[in-house]
Amino acid sequence: HFHGEAPGLLRPFDASMAERSIERLRMASRIRQAIEQNEFMLHFQPVVETATGRVEKLEALLRWPSSDGTCISPEDFIPLSEETGLIIDIGRWVFEEAARTHVALTRAGHGDLSIAVNVSAVQFQRTDVAAVVGDAIERFELRPGALAIELTESSLMANRRSATAAMRRLSAQGTHVSLDDFGTGFSSMAYLRDLPIDALKIDRVFVSDVYANERSASICRAIITLAHTLGMAVVAEGVENAAQLDWLAATGCDFVQGYQLARPMDFDRLLTFLRPGEAAGVAAH
Ligand code: C2E
Ligand code: MG
Ligand code: MG
Ligand code: MG
Question: Where would I find the EAL domain in this sequence (predicted)?
Answer without folding.
Answer: 24-278
